[in-house]
Amino acid sequence: MSIGNAENAPHIGVLPRGLLGTIADVHGVTVGHCTLDEGPVQTGVTVIRPHRGDPFRDKVPAAVSVINGFGKSIGLVQVEELGVLETPIALTNTFGVAALAQAQIRAAIKVNPRIGREWSTVNPLVFECNDGYLNDIQALAVGEPHYNAACAAASADVAGGSVGAGRGMSCFDLKGGIGNASRVADISGRSYSVGALVLANFGRLPMLTIDGVPLGRVLAERVSQAAATAGKPEQGSIIMIVATDAPLDSRQLKRLSLRAAAGLARTGSVYGHGSGDIALAFSTAYTVPHDADIVALPPLLAHARLDPLFRACSDSVEQAIVDALWSATSVTGRDGHRRLSLHDTAADLAQLLKQSP
């Protein structure tokens, strides 16, 4: 298995990837990052926009699955109840959730001054992982300007690794962060795209499995970390955002979001006690107007035809986690704490092997 840049990562499964190999292969989806790289402050914001319009006026169907709920996200209750998104999706560190929620509210009010007055309030949607090992999380460095910058930077050219919300994240005791992938599924002769973006911040090195290969166990044994990490519980979190252009309603998207857990499990996660593992799925096939009396839905796929999308979801999530590891660069942050990238760890391993008798 070659370890280097993201292009060298193994392809998970048999379904083809999309043209870009990112969540932006789902038409209309864009992603923006704002990265804070300032000594002990190693954090940031990532924003996923479901379309280029106003998500409050033109909502998209969505659903969320909480695999393990050790997390401090905001907005999940209303998504579960109403089955739509009203803002872009924001990702950041645990202590940045409140600031980004306020930023989302201000941004929505600026475009729609009737929110909270003649109209209902807006549901901000922010997900988080704890980057406190590398980042001085107590500095409360993330704020409204960083959310706005990430929104302004949103494009179909999606960066991954140690960027945006992924800047300070760790994964399998290595450098984690933002990962992307996509798959194309065929249903009755028509192709549909499924894309995944993950914020990967979970796992212990001996657990790491890539495309069925116990790579983490080999690395841990070679660098003498197995004894140090094997007894520690899995902790951290992962946020899995899944997008598709297939026409699905919120109930079907709930079923799709649950399949993200299959991709997560195949990398070695057991959804540990201290892990916040959350998946959200949305469709760009249609929008739900805010002030409509009647909502006209397109013909939806039958439940019995969803298996190819389920496979595309699980493969995309697994691939996105692999991409986060392959794309990340090593980072030194708070109190000299350092996380080596998978690439640098493999280079160190190669050097150790050269020195072995």
CATH superfamily: L-amino peptidase D-ALA esterase/amidase
Runs with pLDDT <50, length 5+? 352-357
What's the CATH architecture? Answer: 4-Layer Sandwich
Q: How can the largest sheet be summarized?
A: 7 strands, mixed
Q: What's the tally of helices?
A: 9
Task: Briefly note the structural class of the backbone.
Answer: alpha+beta
* Count of spatially separate domains: 1
Defining key terms:
357 residues, alpha+beta, L-amino peptidase D-ALA esterase/amidase, 7-stranded mixed beta sheet, 9 helices, 26% helix, aminopeptidase
Explain what you see.
The protein contains nine helices and 15 strands. With 357 residues, the chain is of the alpha+beta class. The chain has a single domain, classed as L-amino peptidase D-ALA esterase/amidase, CATH 3.60.70.12. Strands 3, 4, 9, 10, 11, 12 and 13 form a seven-stranded mixed sheet that branches. The protein has a four-stranded mixed sheet with strand order 1-2-5-6. A two-stranded antiparallel sheet has the order 7-8. Strand 14 and strand 15 form a beta hairpin. The chain starts with 29 loop residues before the first strand and ends with a helix.
Brief synopsis:
This is Aminopeptidase. This protein is 26% helix and 27% strand. With 357 residues, it is of the alpha+beta class.
Topology:
Layout: E1 30-38, E2 41-49, E3 58-69, H1 76-82, E4 84-85, E5 89-93, H2 97-111, E6 126-129, H3 144-152, E7 170-171, E8 174-175, E9 177-187, E10 190-202, H4 215-222, H5 226-229, E11 235-244, H6 250-258, H7 260-266, E12 274-283, E13 288-289, H8 307-327, E14 331-332, E15 338-339, H9 342-355
Parallel strand pairs: 5-6, 11-12
Antiparallel strand pairs: 1-2, 2-5, 3-4, 3-12, 3-13, 7-8, 9-10, 10-11, 14-15
